[in-house]
Design a protein that fits this description.
The protein has eight helices and seven strands. By secondary structure, the chain is of the alpha/beta class. The protein has a seven-stranded mixed sheet, sandwiched between helices. α2 runs antiparallel to α5 and α3 runs parallel beside α4. It is globular and about 40 Å long. The protein starts with 11 loop residues before the first helix and ends with a strand.
């Protein structure tokens, strides 16, 4: 099928323009990004991009989410974005294995006044997902954790999504390496992307935002 290239390469200058012409990061988000970069430089790439965080808030509001789950929290920017999109009585369950990283997250959630909406659970995410009610009840889910386990998280989340619920999946392009895998994680993402695209329980679109973002709506 002939294709027309529409997506531009994202330079630093163009990313700054994109951020400036959407809802800009506030002081809390800017401080969280800066602290993560300065105190965790070797891991800072695990944090979602500012424009991605703004999109997460918007998506949360668009699906009228009240019950959400995040797999992989790191220092809490994506959770902060989702929690801000929830109503006051909404709940986001965050699953992570690091007390160190999520200690940073807790401070910023409290500062933003959304800590009451967030239930952080430390431990293996697969076990925590299996402990959730089995019926469809989730409005929104975000997957941004170890890539090898993405199929496990997907398998646990899809049956728990209500019709119209949205699963958002990060890092689906692996910095372009899905075209030429260079590691086990790259190979795993290639296989996972094929799995999601073939799953007839969802409608799927893959977006070239940040490191690639897949949106999957439960039918």
């Amino acid at each position: 099928m002939p294709m027309t290239t529409k997506t531009l390469p994202m330079t630093d200058a163009l990313q700054a323009y994109v951020i400036a012409h959407g809802t800009p990061p506030d002081e809390i988000v800017s401080d969280l990004i800066a602290e993560t970069a300065s105190t965790l430089p070797e891991n800072a790439q695990m944090q979602v991009a500012p424009e991605q965080a703004a999109l997460m808030t918007l998506l949360t509001r668009l699906v009228n989410a009240r019950r959400a789950v995040e797999v992989g929290t790191f220092t809490g920017l994506s959770a902060l974005a989702i929690a801000r999109g929830l109503p006051a009585d909404g709940q986001l369950i965050c699953l992570d294995v690091s007390e160190e990283f999520t200690a940073v997250a807790r401070r910023y959630w409290q500062r933003a006044g959304v800590d009451g909406r967030i239930d952080l659970r430390i431990g293996p995410a697969a076990d925590s997902l299996r402990a959730l009610p089995g019926e469809p009840h989730l409005d929104l889910a975000f997957i941004d954790a170890d890539k090898i386990s993405y199929p496990v998280y997907w398998g646990e989340l899809v049956p728990r999504m209500r019709p119209g619920g949205l699963i958002v999946i990060d890092n689906v392009l692996r910095h372009g390496r899905v075209l030429a895998p260079q590691s086990e994680e790259d190979e795993a993402m290639v296989a996972f992307n094929k799995q999601v695209a073939a799953d007839d329980r969802v409608d799927v679109v893959m977006l070239a935002i940040a490191d690639g973002l897949t949106l999957a709506r439960r039918r």
